[in-house]
Amino acid sequence: MLCNKLLPVAMLLGASVAQNATLRYMPFGDSITEIICWRAKLWEKLKPTEWGSVDWVGSGRGENNCGDSNYDRDNEGHSGFLAIDIANRQQLVGWLQKNPADVITMHLGTNDIVQQNKPTNDIIAAFTTLVGVMRDSNPNMKIVVAQIIPMGFGNYNTQIQNLNKAIIPWAQGLNKTESPIWVVDQYTGFSGTADLRDGVHPNASGDDKMVNVWYPALVNAFQVAQAEKQAAAAKQVEVPFTA
Q1: Which of 25, 103, 184, 189 sits in a 20 to 30 Å window from 222, CA-based?
Q2: Contacts of residue 95, Cβ cutoff 8 Å, sequence gap at least 6
Q3: Which of 81, 185, 167, 80 is nearest to 131 (CA)?
Q4: Are 20 and 229 within 8 A, CB to CB?
């Protein structure tokens, strides 16, 4: 009889494990995260996999005429925003309080360079602040940072390449076992002419290229985060047997 009485409790605890283990993913950045279609295409690529149930989070839900009305549009992309301003104004603090995440991708720095010609060191310092905010929100945050795509006009790509080069040692210096930073290269192989619709934002081919770079890194981050969440949840549901 004792086993019968414990069964409903075990079932409830099992449901709690499943709920607690659900992953939350935040796409974070500027307009190259907000007003594009790589998010829709990435969602479509993930949907038939075990990661199709991941909850995308963020305060933005804009539709970009991507041809898919079903994808999870939640994101934290903010057109025109600078990494330096987001860091100095502590805006990510509130965004993560409202929409906590387990995994975050970041593609930032374009506006810092194009709008205000900010030095690489200042942008990197802002990145450090933002990572600190992410980890304050979730000490186990899994972070994927992009070396950003090129521009199709002006002389900005030298500065973009300088930033991208600086991202590698920066990430290595901040990497933690519990909160790793993985760097993905969105610059190499991306054409500033053929893959942009307006010199700034990816067109269909650019979206595809970004998806192909994000996808393996994001799946890896999901795998690591999910394993940790499931292990932590399982510990909470261990019920000692008493006769």
Answers
A1: 189
A2: 28, 58, 59, 76
A3: 167
A4: yes
pLDDT at residue 113 tops 80: yes
241: which residues sit within 8 A by CB, 6+ positions away? none
Pairing of strands 55-56, 76-77: unpaired
pLDDT digits (tens, 9 = 90+) for 214-243: 999 999 999 999 999 888 888 876 555 555
Give yes or no for a contact between 221 and 182, defined as CB atoms under 8 angstroms apart: yes
Q: At what angle do helices 157-174 and 120-137 cross, to 10 degrees?
A: 40
202 DSSP β-pair partners: 196
Q: Does the pTM exceed 0.70?
A: yes
Q: Which residues contact 55 (CB under 8 A, 6 or more apart)?
A: 22, 23, 24, 25, 72, 74
